Amino acid sequence: MNVEPGLFHFLVIGAVLFFIGIYGFLTRRNLITMLMSVELILNSVNINFIAFNKYLWPGTLDGAFFTVFIIAIAAAEAAVAIAIIINLFRSHQSINVEVAEEMKY
Amino acid sequence: MNLLWMVGAPLLTGLAIVLAPARYARLIALGGAILQMALVMGLYFSFTHEREVGNVFPLLFEKQYQWFPSLGFSLHIGVDGIAVAMMMLTAFVVVAGVLVSWRMEHMKKEFFFFLTLLAFGAYGFFMSMDLMVMFFFLEVAVIPKYLFISIWGSGNKTYSANKLALMLMGGSALILVGILGLYFSLPPESRTFDMAKLAETGIGFEIQRWVFPLVFVGFGVFTALFPFHTWVPDGHSSAPTAGSMFLAGISMKLGGYGCLRAATYLMPEGAREYANIIIVLASIAIIYGAFATMMQKDLKYINAYSSISHCGFVLLGIGMLTKTAITGAVFQMVSHGLMTALFFAIIGMVYERTHTRLVEQMGGLLKVMPFIITAMFIAGFCSLGLPGLSGFVAEMTVFVGSWETQDVFHRTATVIGAMSIVVTAVYILRAVGQVAMGPLAASGEGVEDARWYERWSVIILIAGILAMGLAPFWLYELVSPGVDVIVNQLAGE
Amino acid sequence: MNTTNIILIPLLPLLSFILLGLGGKRLFGDKAGWIATVAMLISFILACGVAMNYFGDHSDDAYVSKIVFNFPWLHFGNGLQINMGALIDPITSLMLFVVTFISLMVHIFSLAYMKGEDRFHIYYAFLGLFTFSMLGLVISSNLFQIYIFWELVGVSSFLLIGFYYQKTTALAAAKKAFIVTRFADLGFLIGILVLSAQAHTLDFQQLMINLTSTEYASAAGAFMGISALSWGLALVFMGAAGKSAMFPLHIWLPDAMEGPTPVSALIHAATMVVAGVFLVARLYPLYSIADVGVQSLISSVGAFTAVFAAVIACTQTDIKRVLAYSTVSQIGFMMFSLGIMSEDHLGFTASMFHLFTHAIFKALLFLAAGVIIHYVHSNEMQDMGGLSKKMPVTHLVFLLACLAIAGIPPFAGFFSKEEILLNAWNNNRSIFFMALLTSGLTAFYMFRLYFSIFWNKPHHDHDHGHSKKEGSWFELVPLMILGVGTVLAGFVPFGEYVSADGKPHHVNMDLQFSLAPVGIALLGILLAAWMYFKESTKPEKTAAGFGVFYKAAKHKFYIDEIWLGFTKGVLFNLIGRPAAWFDKNVIDTLVKGTGSATQGAAEGIKGMQSGKVQQYGLYFLFGIIIIVSVFLFTQGGR
Prior knowledge:
The complex is a heterotrimer. By secondary structure, chain A is mainly alpha-helical. Helices cover 73% and strands 0% of the residues of chain A. Chain A has helices at 7-27, 31-55, 62-92. The longest helix of chain A has 31 residues, at 62-92. The N and C termini of chain A lie far apart (58 Å). In chain B, 76% of the residues lie in helices and 3% in strands. Chain B has helices at residues 4-19, 25-52, 81-100, 108-127, 131-152, 157-185, 195-201, 205-222, 231-238, 241-265, 268-294, 299-320, 323-354, 365-368, 370-383, 390-404, 408-436, 452-470, 472-491, and strands at residues 60-68, 73-79. A two-stranded antiparallel sheet of chain B has the order 1-2. In chain C, helix 2 (32-56) runs antiparallel to helix 3 and helix 2 (32-56) runs parallel beside helix 4. The model of chain C has no long low-confidence stretch (mean pLDDT 83). Chain C has helices spanning 3-28, 32-56, 90-113, 120-139, 143-161, 168-199, 204-212, 214-218, 228-243, 252-255, 261-270, 275-282, 284-289, 292-313, 319-339, 346-376, 392-406, 412-427, 429-454, 473-488, 494-497, 511-532, 538-546, 548-554, 559-606, 613-635, and strands spanning 66-75, 81-88. A two-stranded antiparallel sheet of chain C has the order 1-2. Chains B and C meet through helix 6, helix 11, helix 13, helix 16 and helix 17 of B and strand 1, helix 5, helix 6 and helix 25 of C.
């Protein structure tokens, strides 16, 4: 049985990826892993953009543009986040997110 | 005369205080205060001159400068007689306040700067004819009060400062909501903050109905409207001497003036709608403040509570909506400003010498400081409405005006108000009698009488009290056309 | 008539007040008294001139009241205008003379009496302030102006009673006097408001015209079934009763004796306390058209006070207090005489006549008492006795004054009291008998005083060796002048000058009518002589005979205690304390409650700000879900 992949399949993948990302972001204590989860979330969005672009408005490239933007932002974000994580490690000797909780009330 | 000088003078003084070395701060402040007084006197004479030559336009020296055209407000300034009277009051209190603080040592530069800033706010407030600008100046005058109490205050000062700032800010918030609501309920093409225009076009009754209470109560908080008066005793008692003088002498008058100008004048129908409630609250404040004063033991608390009672007359006069009563309210603002500033100045002097403010720890001080205690008698007699002093003129005018409305409700309120003069006599004589007379208390031994700057501060305020008490007609001439405008507005439609 | 002169009469004392008050000791030193006295003398001469001028002007057949000066002082918005004016009519001229005369006597007397006082100049400054206020009061052209000066005399009285400010009793007495009269003034003030709203003016002449015209009378707004006019007049009478120490507002006057004795003579015997009588007399035309209720209020309060105070006076031992109660009693006479209205308005003339004579002999009594007190250094009767030889001049004038107040012909009090009694006899018999009883009591207590001071037991000089002088000439000359006045004042044809309608009023003195009052007065004198001429135990026995009644009278019928209970119990504990408590605990709690509620809410939700990134992420997620679902439910229904 050969099923032509449609919009639905891409959206399912996107949703699965999104919730994996959410799950990872909320449960992992390691900041690197959390960062990776954030990347997953962003990528799930990317998939959705591409899928919508291809299946709903095939004549345009808006979705692709957004995807490229998001990839660029993700890269920048990763750079910033890694920098923060490194600084955190220097000051707290750990990259466990629970250690960094000074910023409260 | 350009009215901008009246805000420019304190602003420049403040700037000079900041830039000059700290030891010159008081000199500059005094110079600035005297300059302001001279300017106000100039304003008064040119104002009366304009009136004499037949200029009957209600607002004189009007000027309009663009400020935030996109937001619809402009620096629209102008004065009528009421504003001139209030500005004269401010000038008197400022000079006296600077003189009283002559020996201020702790952070004196900042102290005199904020004193000047407060004057700046007050002058600006009284001359502005634009709701937003008025609000701006009101806020300028609030901030220094918080700092006065929390930095230079005494006793439970953090608590008092917070309480005062929060309650006054709460009042301000009500005012802001009120004027914004007013602005946006108008049809877009006639939206303006300009009071003259608003009064001319008129505001619909449905709008007045909900905006009036907001604005009135907001300003009422400033002038100790019952039950929003509790900042008064705490704030006054913790503030330094000059702070109390400014607070009671000027700041509480901002509220009364606002109630009159921004609430009653702009929204006459709202005023008529809520007049009875105002009268009830004012009557309660008058008699209840007087009785509460009777039980106080601390001189500053006594004067603060009596301020609640006396400011009740301002609100009673406004609530009565007759010309005489509103004139009386204005008189009472001027009179109470001078009298209470004098009282606080004297309490400060007595405290500085005896190191106590509790009445029962004082006695027989007339012997050791005749000048200060004589002035205290004058302040006390003014407070209890002795003819020849300003309090009498103001209270009588309110009473006569209140009695004009011929029904049992208004007359009962008048009688209640009149009853307070007896209670006032009781508490004033109790306090002043105990402090001044009887055998000399231990706290009063070996103290000196007033120094030169204290003498002048007292003399200036007493001069004001006498000028108003002995010859009230000039103040009436000054204020009357301004009140007419408001009363016409009330009677209109 | 010269306007400047009339204005100067009150202004000269004011000037001396300002000069002495500001210049004080530094400028004038011991000369302070002289400056004030000279100012007062000029004032007195001017007042005599004005009075003679006024009464000498016979061009009309009646004396009309003239406004010689009017200055707009304050407008009220409703067209009501308050003037500072000077109104001259018979009673003004009379009062100008009385006030300046007594004040001058007191000024001269005080030169010696107050000599060496630390605040000598302040004393004269206050005397000046008082005289100014009192003169301003009597020349007032409108009700509001009277109120202004009314308050000013009140405050000068306060200052003078509290002159010895380091004495706690003086402080208490001063406060009491001020507050009690202030309480009465509340009535006066409301009365003014009522009348002004009714008549739309406060000028006396216009007031009479407006309120007596039918137009206004018909518009009279009645309240509780009583016309506004009557309400106003009754309330004004309340003020008058307070100032004139009528029952039950009399309590301040005996205590006011804490002040220096010359002050008692001037303020609390001759001038200020009769201000209430003057006020009622001033508004006499209105009272005469008011409801009968108001008139009988005045007459019954006056008559009751007369008897009541006379009874108390019989039991007091402090000589100044006896004189104070006697003053209260005599003012009661004047008051009820005004209250008894009749066709011929004899009551008015009689009351004013009595005011005039009483001022002279009562001032004399007080000044003489001052000399005596200085001589024996005590106010108490038992420290005196046998002074007749030591103080011949004082003895003589005191006797004259006692005979005058007792109503023995031909001294001043006889004539005036006789007119009052005649009026009462003609119009109100019950009051007549009360007054007759009072006359007897008056004679009794005055001669009790006289015999106790000058006879009774022989005098023991406390400081032997040097014989003390009776008093300096500054003290004795005023006494003599007043003594002459006491003898002659009764022969003034008073009715010719002062009457309700300005027309000369001829009083027919009936010799037979005088028999009863004079007889009862002589009886009182004899009784006093029997009991007090020689030291004996008769007074104690008599007192014991009266039992509880004597005790009650001795304690002034506990009126002071009742008032004290009222102020302490009701004003302070029942109203003041709860008000202060309410403010602190209810209103302030509400305010603080707002603060602490805000703070509590913040405490409650601050835990959400945990600093844990993943928790924030979770909130974020839930937030998104909620927003999206809200969006879907509201907008997604398309």
